[in-house]
Amino acid sequence: MSPELIILFGSFVALLLIGTPIAFCLGAASLATVVYMGIPPLVVFQRLNSGISVFSLMAIPFFIYAGDLMIRGGIAERLVRFAGSLVGHMRGGLGQVNIAASTLFGGISGSAVADASAIGGLMIPQMQKRGYDTSFAVNVTVSSAIIALLIPPSHNMIIYSLSAGGSISIADLFTAGIVPGLLLAATLMLVTWFVARKRGYPAEPFPGWARVATYAVSAFPGIILIGIIFGGVRSGVFTATESSCIAAVYALLITVLVYRGMNLAEFKDATFAAVRTTAMVLLVIGCAAAFGWLLAFFQVPSAMVAFMRSISNDPIVIFLLINLLLLFLGTFMDMSPLIIITTPIFLPVVTAFGMDPVHFGAILILNLGIGLCTPPVGAVLFVGCAVGRISIWEAMRTIWPFYGASIAVLMLVTYVPAISLWLPSMFR
Amino acid sequence: MSPALTRVSSALATLALWLSAAGLIGMTLAVAWQVFGRYVLNSTPTWTEALSIQLMGWFILLGAAVGVREGYHLGFDILRIALPGRPARLMALVSHLVVLAFGLAMVWYSWDLVVGTWTATIPILGWPGGIDFLPLLGGGALISFFTLEHLYNLAAGHDDGTGA
Q1: How far lies A163's CA from each of A56, A203, A291, B107, in Å?
Q2: Among A36, A146, A162, B157, which residue is least crowded by beta carbons within 10 Å?
Q3: How close is the nearest chain A Cα to the Cα of B128, in Å?
Q4: Quick one: closest CA in B to A281, which residue?
Q5: Pairwise CB contact (< 8 Å): A20 & B136
Q6: Nearest CA in chain B to A239
Q7: What is the pLDDT of residues A82-141, one digit of tens each?
Q8: Triad A63, A65, A67: Cα angle to 5°
Q9: Could you give the ipTM of this predicted complex?
Q10: CA-to-CA distance for A159 and B74, rounded, in angstroms?
């Protein structure tokens, strides 16, 4: 390894370990390397600035803003009621409702943390009241929150597309997440069914089709958001950025005019929440532009391909290794910085082994989504435990069937490309 | 930092947060106008994309600077939390110093960029090219200032609860 690369990676890892925010780890490591190389340091800030001056980047704050507006406007209650009327009568009823509501919620927000707090905040107390163990309620909430990452809109898919240089179609990535998301939902519902049968959890009475229809109508203005986004992007009527903006404007109109669930103070809260969530992610993307430029300069991606080839020439082995590495990294790092940092390094490897970049997008999001539910650092697990007021360890004791289901789906998505690629191919 | 300076810092952070939020709303309006123009008015405005990118620069840098003060940046802080007081404080100190150095470098070099590109013109908007780099300049200054506040708190032995 050249001294420049040792400085770049060494300072990055050292800063990361002492707890420096990731944006500054990336920025300072790039700056130190450039100074060592004798290149004008100005170039780091030029790269940073061009990294954040990209129109398609705007879709990230817009989608998160739309989700924040919708949640404060009371969409979660309507989705839960609708999901309850649909699947509540199945074995482990409220657990099934939790999963179905998360799937619907995924069509409004791409944030697993928002899902765990919005759906979990409603479902966990209800499940406790109906005699479900709190750890089970938290397990279901946490693991089903991953579904929201896969069902469009998924701002993480946009982060992935941008980290890959912006050449991967966002419409294809959005489409590729749907079947894996539904597969995960179905698998989690099956696990819930088995656990519920073993522990004797109840089912709710079926409320009748009239009630289902009423709840569907009440949830409808929220649910068609996914239609606007998906239809708009897929048909080419809107770009991804425009559709995300329409989503935010639509979310505001719906919550103010139809649901009448928002006052000025809540609007301010939603706006500030979106600022706080996204400004830091976008700064990470900007700093990663400088870091990524150096990676490309030192031809790290092609060195990585050569290194992986020296380990094995079998794609099955390589894809497994990359999955294990991502799962490991995901246990202690957050999703968006991991997408930004690992995409430029791993994408060339998987494409060299014949994987479609859209396929890798679905794997990456699912894999890192599982990482959000694992200790020591798992934002979704933390939120679920906080809502249920139990310790991480209590939740961990019973979460294994759900981890097993998620990992089984991850393996299926990895080794059966059609699960993610079939639906996008239908639109081509 | 004396209580007076803490008040100044708090006021600056509030102002930056409001401006950042205004930037987000401005971006939303500009892009919504672009779609409205194309499908309703049958003429796509050309300035909306360029303007919204300018607003996004301020939105990101101001919001990120507030993040430095409030400590909501994404990072790997588990090691520092797990370690006892003295090493943890040392790690926080080094981390703050690195962020300060980066913030100051951001001010220094983006000033060069502002000056160096001022005579160029941003296409469509017709503004001086240096305006592109003003968010970095402002954001860098705020990041440095808020980090100095953290360093002061660390030196004074206050636990401000925000880490690096």
Answers
A1: 12, 45, 11, 26
A2: B157
A3: 16
A4: B74
A5: no
A6: B35
A7: 999 999 999 999 999 999 999 999 988 888 998 999 999 999 999 999 999 999 999 999
A8: 70
A9: 0.92
A10: 15
